[in-house]
Design brief:
Elements (H helix, E strand, L loop, with lengths): L1 H37 L3 H15 L2 H24 L2 H33 L2 H35 L2
Helix pairs in contact: 1-3, 1-4, 1-5, 2-5, 3-4, 4-5
């Protein structure tokens, strides 16, 4: 039984840490990168954002993004199965990370794809609206990830 507890504990720490790392990445983007891009000419900002998005689809970020999602599913299932208040807090935290994960898949990635596929002049013309919309969604996933991390690790 101690081995199961230790594995569950390690999984929770991994999911909570991954959620915090992802959340920190999103916070940095909303607080630093997007304001810097908005200060640049629109065509330059679009080209830079498209380059950033191409670089995001690589093992370092994808490992954190998908690995944390998988670990969060397990933490959520274990937390509900435990049925105690701390388990439910961990499950809530896992659910928060997963909500940010789903927001990325359903909202941010399609938005990024539309920006990348649009002719540069068209993308540049819509840049201010695109950047506002993307930053709002990104800030929501940042808050969900950070709160999820706190609840998963704090619910231990």
């Amino acid at each position: 039984m101690a081995t199961t507890f230790e594995a569950s504990e390690l999984l929770t720490i991994a999911a909570g840490t991954g959620s915090a790392v992802a959340g920190g990445f999103y916070v940095a983007f909303s607080a630093v990168v997007m304001p810097a891009l908005r200060s640049r000419p629109a065509k330059e900002a679009v080209e830079t954002m498209n380059a950033v998005n191409r670089h995001a689809v690589r093992p370092p970020f994808l490992t954190i993004f998908f690995g944390t999602a998988a670990a969060s599913v397990a933490v959520g299932i274990n937390g509900v199965a435990d049925g105690d208040p701390k388990g439910l807090v961990r499950a809530l935290g896992a659910g928060l990370y997963l909500s940010g994960f789903l927001l990325t898949v359903a909202y941010s990635v399609p938005l990024n794809n539309r920006l990348a596929m649009a002719p540069l002049a068209e993308a540049a013309a819509s840049w201010p609206q695109w950047a506002r919309s993307w930053t709002r969604g990104n800030t929501v996933r940042a808050m969900a990830s950070m709160a999820g991390a706190a609840l998963m690790v704090g619910g231990r």
